[in-house]
Amino acid sequence: EIEKEWLLRTFKVSRIEIRNGITLVNFLKLLKLELEISNTA
């Protein structure tokens, strides 16, 4: 449940950031980094 909410929140935020001009490549790098952090936590 918590992970689903986290993913939804992350994608909502990232959609806004993409609209604000962050490239898809940078977004994917950030997402990969966040997934690595959440896996080690």
UniProtKB/TrEMBL annotation:
<protein>
    <submittedName>
        <fullName>14092_t:CDS:1</fullName>
    </submittedName>
</protein>
